[in-house]
Amino acid sequence: MKSLQDSAVAVVGLGLMGGSLALTLRAKNACRRIIGITRDDRTCQAALARGWVDVAGAELDLAAAADVIVLATPVRTILAQLLLVGTIACEGAIVMDLGSTKREITRAMQDLPGYLEPIGAHPMCGKEGSGFDFADADLYHNAVFVLTPLERTSPQTLAFAESFAVTLGARPVTLDAVQHDRIVAAISHLPFALATSLMTTVEELTRDGDQPYTLAASGFRDTSRLAASDTTMMLDILMTNRENVAAATRACAHYLDELADLIAAADEPALYALLQNAAVKRRTLKSSI
Predict the structure, then answer these.
(1) Do 32 and 162 share a domain, yes or no?
(2) Cα–chain-centroid distance for residue 267?
(3) Rounded to whole angstroms, how far apart are CA atoms 99 and 275?
(4) Are 85 and 169 in a shared domain?
């Protein structure tokens, strides 16, 4: 297995995550060659002009020359691309992804030819804006970089992936794919669902002519921000983690009903206890998130 320094890396998808990956690899002079693959011709030209990649094009066949293939596209696109990757990747190539859900992706990776080295990955970072123009060389800095090895993933491939994450400035953490999806449903996908529900609720409650957004300030801005996430990306996430997200959403609905009942009943002692418990737990997280 080649070192990263001696490897050609194909980055498939040059949006926020893939573009930032290519930029970071280039800024750190971390690998021998960077191949950018995207269907957006303008992005291809920009990546080449800025020197972030050595070769760029729309065809996945370009990845045949890579020692490391990183799929940085929406989850269901990754699932489709894995079918083709299995037919064009060179023997011994490491196949990684940056998808936000892992169970379906790692299952699909199990079907890759035996001469390939697959491992799932999910860097826990992002930005409010999406796309190549928002790419950032510091996006991965100090981010948790989850690795979800398959049963077939060799110790050497896991070690390579850990080193890859460290090179980006991230902190590698190894998790089972099922455990990963259950956790991110609660801490990532549920917040998106809540932000979407908040926007829908405000629109419904003020449709008779009120102007809520003229009064909205930081509280509304912060709690509704995730509703502006890329719709295609989030739809893929919800559809490939639907059991966990549905369960988390129903649990949250239960607690919202409980909160509403306490408010309606003017049960101040119970309401204070619930609010204080949540406040104390959130304050303890301030130093870690």
Answers:
(1) yes
(2) 41
(3) 35
(4) yes
